[in-house]
Amino acid sequence: MLGLGNSVSASQYLGGFSDPTSLSGLQIWLKNDTGITTASSAAASDGDKVYGWADASGNENDASASSQRFEYIASEGGILSTPALGNSILNLPQLTFSDFSIFMKIKFSSISSGASDIFALDKDNTVNFFRIQNATQIKAKVNYSSATSWTTSTISVDTYYNINVTRTGSSGSVYIDGVQQDDTKNVNSNTFYVDRIGSVFNGVIKNFIVYDRLLTDDERADVNTFMAGI
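The structure assignment produced for this chain is given below.
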C-alpha cells in the first residue's frame, strides 16, 4: 500500500476539528511522515531521495518528482532540500483557485535575497508564486505581472514556522504562526495556479495544505494549532 510508514494521529480539538480533513474545501494535504515514497513506491527511509508524496486529502493530488529530488528526513518527518541536492522540487497536478488558504510548515536552513526560496508556484508561468523574498518579507504574484509584498517579523533559520497565505476576492493576507503580518493587500482576483512546491529552496517542508476558500478565524486557528503540534 502506498504511503505506509510513520503516521501522526491528530488530537481532537473543540468544535469538531480533528485534522485538516475536518474542514470543507480541502484540495491537497501533503502530510508529515505519511505517504513519502521512493522510486519503487516504497515508504522512504532516512536519507532516501523522494519520488512521491501522497495526498492525504482524498483528492489524489499526489506530488511527484522525476529529477531534482528532496531527501526524506526521518527524524523530522519531512523533506529536505540543500544546495548539494540542487533546486529540489515536487510537481503537483495543476491546481486552480479563486479564493484560497495555503498552509505550509517549513524551516529554512538559509534565506536568500531576491527570486528564491519559492514555496508555491506554477512551473509554466512566472506570474504565479509565493516566496520568502528575504528574512522580513513575503512576496507574491497572483497571475499578474505586478508583485505584492508583505513585511513580516524576522524569519530565522533553523526554526519551524507555520506560514499561511490567503486570498478572498482581491484581498490577500499573510500569517506566520497564526499572527497576521502587515496589512491585507490588494492582489487582484485572477485565477491562481499552483503545480509545484520547492524550487530554489534550502530547508525542510513538513506539511503542505491548501483549501479552495478563505477559512474563518476559528478554522484558521484550528489548522494552526494542529500544525503547531507536529
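Interim note for the steering committee: The chain has one helix and 17 strands. Confidence is low (pLDDT under 50) at residues 1-14.
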